[in-house]
Amino acid sequence: MSDLQHYQDKNLLHSSSAGGRSEQLALYDKYSSMAYGIILNILPDPKMAQEVLLNLFASSQLRACDSYPFSYAGCVIKLARSKALEAKQKVASLSSVSEDGEDTQVNSPDNIFDLAFRKGLSIDLVAERLNISRQDVLKGIHLFFKTNRQS
Amino acid sequence: MQNRQFIESGILESYLLGLASESEQVEVKRYADEYPDVQEHLFDLDKDLQEFFLINSVPPPPEIRDELELLVGKHELQKNGTSRDSGNKKRVYTEEKPKEDYLEIEVNDTHIRVHKLWRPAFFVIFLLSKVFLILALYYFFKTSSLEEEIGRLRQQNIEIHKK
Fold it and tell me: Which has the least CB within 10 A, A63, B73, B99, B154?
């Protein structure tokens, strides 16, 4: 995203915090599909994913993106992920269902990204699970995006 | 050379995704401040991440936008209300409310919302109606067969008397 684009998004948010409902909806129109895709990756239940999406765009946390040094979309990505993981943890604690032990042995970049980003495990936990070093986990994430960039 | 290693270590992707530890975040910031090529790479990566997630985006159902519109309106209303109350405690409540306090809602939904107890209530009513229908049919057929029996017995009685 260009600097100009970021500036425009910041302006949108400023007017939104000033009370402009339409500007807040404009941000939703722009980023909701991307955020919904991320949330659905973490929470496959569409009802729950929609609740999280609504919560994300209605929350004041979105205003923190104003001071984010990179693109506005980058901030939305982070927020969408953290909100979805938060909801997932709540559901897991209610139903006491854990996904531990699922496909933990594959050291592919896809699996590393899946464990770290979608399942919300810390880098150290991913390393422990896959019996690899922390550097290898970071490298795996790098390779994941490199492969996706090339394809 | 050192920068290339740093860029290819994956620490920048982790930083942008919010996966990096605090010490790693500090390291990335230090490198970005010190080396313009690292900073440039960070911006490029940010763009790449955005493109990756845009490719995997899923449009949400349109109802969510309507719900958000209502929610944002409600929040605004509450905020306006509290700021007005705190700013002017001696407000005379007999005055007419300003028009912006009202939330304009355009209803284009064909569904209605009812209390959740309506579901068992409807089920009980449905079940009772079926039971009464079966009972009504049972007694109707029983009565008509009894009437036939009475008619037949009357006929027999008349024939006996004639003999």
Answer: B99
